[in-house]
C-alpha cells in the first residue's frame, strides 16, 4: 500500500526517467526498499533510516538487502536524521525528497503502534515538511489496536494541519491488529 500510495499520490511518476528521491524511516525487513530497487525503468535514490542496527542485519540475512550507490541504509534515529537534513543548507541547497515513507513502529502492543508518537509532534511534522519537495508526499503506515481506530484519525488530523491534502486509507476491514 505504501509503494502504491507513492505513485497515486503523484509524488513519484511511474514513467519518469529522471532521478526520484525516496526517504524511508523504518527498515523492518527491507521489503519496501528492496522491491523499489527492482522496479523496471525507474531511477530512484533510496535512503532508509532505522534506529536499530539489528534490523539491517536481519534485512541482509533473511531479505537479501543489498546496498548500492543509489540504495543506502543509515543506522540513526529517523527524526535526528530528518532534522539534520532539514538544517543542512538553505531552502535552495538542502536535500529534498519526492516521497517520505514513515514506517517507524513500536515493538509492543498499544493503541497507536505506528507511527511513533514523536512523529505527531508539531515541530517534527514541520521538519518533515521541510525535506519534502513541492508536489511530494509523506506516506505513513498507521497501525492501531482494534479498539483504538480513532488513533488513525488523530494521525491524519495532525498531518492535515501542515499538508494541504491528507487521505486516510484502510486497506481492508481486517487490516487491524487485534488485542
UniProtKB/TrEMBL annotation:
Keywords: Methyltransferase, Transferase. The keyword Flavoprotein does not apply. GO terms for molecular function: methyltransferase activity. It comes from the Eukaryota. InterPro entries: Lys/N-term_MeTrsfase_sf, SAM-dependent_MTases_sf. GO terms for biological process: methylation. Belongs to the methyltransferase superfamily. This is PABS domain-containing protein. It comes from Heterorhabditis bacteriophora (Entomopathogenic nematode worm).
